[in-house]
From TrEMBL:
It holds the Pfam family NXPE4_C. Residues 265-488 form the NXPE C-terminal domain. It comes from the Eukaryota. This is NXPE C-terminal domain-containing protein. It comes from Pelobates cultripes (Western spadefoot toad).
Length: 488
């Protein structure tokens, strides 16, 4: 299809897809011994100093080598970088700069004084990144969707998905405005309107070649690159006390967006408010309607709120599956908190109602908005096993829906929670943190000009050193503290 025949939305999707593809190296001949090797690579400090002050920027250079000890000539490696002081329970992320020639600079802000440890991990070599990118965007085979149709007293299961199969008679479920389409093989002599439930699960199929799979041997990935310079000593060179303003909606998404110290999160350039007592939380939340649209990492928030707000009764009005809608009510204080899954693509081993599913843009369109209305959004991990254009289209449609919302209700508060830095190690091909990183970069670009608040969970979980999809509640509390700072 030529550009003259494309919709404005499809042109936008293609533009973002082309832009983000530039971070992925083009590698046709994959050989393990010519791929990046963490053990042979090197870290050095740019312009080292005897003394570093709080607030200084430390730049660490990474030079990549392959298994043959030959210097790499191209970039695209997926790195995890952080600084930490274990005795202070302090940590922060580093920002990676890729020169596309096998050399990287990592920029660390020295937020606190003391002895600081620099850690840089090669999560995936550039050759593995290229293989993951190609596999993700070449097919829909990682996830199997099954639809349930009802015919009289019988329930009929059939294959569903985002890909049109022209050899079959299909039921099409279309949102023409948002150009979102979902298909099911039509059961014989059954109406498409009798589609009731949907579930999605991993197929355990792989698109990778044997050579590509060798790049992901457990002993060769997620490895720390050797550090020859040891620890960094940082001192406080100024006695000036900086009083940061309270974090508020409309502030730019930064990376790093803050740091942990003594297991407390300190945002960069603004201050967070902690609400721990029931009275404080009740005063903050009184009269508010809080809509949580997203995945299970956002579902963790409603249980965190329930544990702190004892008067909030949480129940599932439409079933007992983990992905069923949750509703929290406090009648005395007129508080409503609702969590609802972000609809397909969504993985759940149990069936969920298809008829109650709406995309986040459609959910936003149904909310009138008010000064006491709060909308929190997140999508990410369920999109990782699907071609990237699905994620880009959904994010653009969310952006459009938010613009419509702000026209009718500019006072409505909207919070965007980015996805977590985490993955299931056994499902690296379809659930890799690299896929999450790509989505993070796209989300940052599409939402950057909106008047929203950000909870940068990608940065926070990296600093927290969490490599799992669902961090513990001790971490989730910091995300909820950011929410309360924005809305109270």
């Amino acid at each position: 299809m030529g550009p003259e025949n494309m919709s404005e939305l499809q042109i936008q999707v293609n533009t973002f897809l082309d832009q983000i593809s530039k971070i992925v190296p083009r590698i046709n001949d994959i050989q393990k011994n010519k791929s990046t090797c963490a053990r042979n690579s090197k870290l050095t400090i740019i312009n080292p100093k005897d003394k570093y002050c709080v607030g200084d920027i430390l730049i660490v250079q990474v030079d990549m080598f392959d298994y043959l000890r030959k210097r790499k000539s191209y970039g695209g490696d997926f790195l995890k970088a952080r600084i930490s002081s274990p005795e202070l329970s302090a940590a922060a992320s580093g920002k990676v700069e890729d020169f596309k020639n096998g050399t990287y600079h990592i920029h660390f802000t020295l937020f606190w004084e003391g002895k600081i440890v620099v850690s840089v991990f090669l999560f995936y070599p550039s050759e593995g990144v290229a293989a993951l990118w190609n596999a993700r965007n070449s097919w829909y085979g990682y996830i199997a969707y099954t639809g349930k149709f009802r015919k009289q007293n019988k329930k009929i299961e059939t294959k569903c998905g985002f890909e049109r199969v022209n050899s079959k008679e299909l039921c099409e479920y279309a949102d023409h405005r948002d150009e979102e389409y979902f298909f099911c093989v039509k059961p014989w002599n059954t109406s498409c309107d009798s589609f009731t439930d949907i579930r999605g699960s991993f197929t355990k199929q792989s698109y990778l070649t044997n050579e590509s799979r060798s790049l992901f041997d457990k002993t060769d990935i997620r490895l720390e690159i050797p550090n020859a310079f040891g620890n960094i000593m940082v001192v406080n060179c100024s006695n000036n006390l900086i009083l940061n303003p309270r974090c508020k909606i409309g502030m730019e998404l930064q990376y790093p967006s803050g740091h942990f110290i003594k297991n407390a999160w300190y945002p960069n350039g603004c201050s967070i408010q902690t609400y721990r007592s029931t009275d404080e939380l009740n005063r903050c939340m009184q009269g508010k309607s809080i809509y949580l649209f997203g995945d299970s990492t956002l579902r963790q928030w409603i249980y965190n709120l329930q544990s702190n707000v004892k008067t909030l009764t949480v129940f599932s009005p439409y079933g007992d599956g983990w992905a069923s809608q949750l509703l929290g009510i406090d009648l005395k204080r007129n508080i409503m908190v609702r969590w609802k899954r972000h609809t397909s693509p969504f993985l759940s081993g149990s069936y969920q109602s298809f008829r109650e599913e709406r995309t986040i843009p459609r959910e936003i369109d149904l909310i009138g908005g008010h000064e006491n209305t709060v909308i929190v959004l997140n999508i990410g991990v369920h999109f990782r096993p699907h071609p990237l254009h699905l994620y880009i289209r959904r994010i653009i449609n969310i952006q459009r829906a938010l613009k419509r919302l702000f026209l009718r209700s500019p006072e409505t508060k909207v919070i965007i929670k980015t996805e977590h830095f985490g993955e299931n190690e056994k499902e690296y091909e379809m659930n890799s943190s690299f896929h999450g990183y790509v989505q993070y970069l796209i989300m940052e670009q599409i939402f950057k000009d909106l008047n929203v608040g950000f909870v940068n969970a990608w940065d926070m979980t990296n600093a927290f050193n969490s490599n799992i999809i669902h961090p513990p509640n001790t971490y989730i509390q910091h995300e909820v503290d950011m929410l309360m700072t924005y809305i109270c």
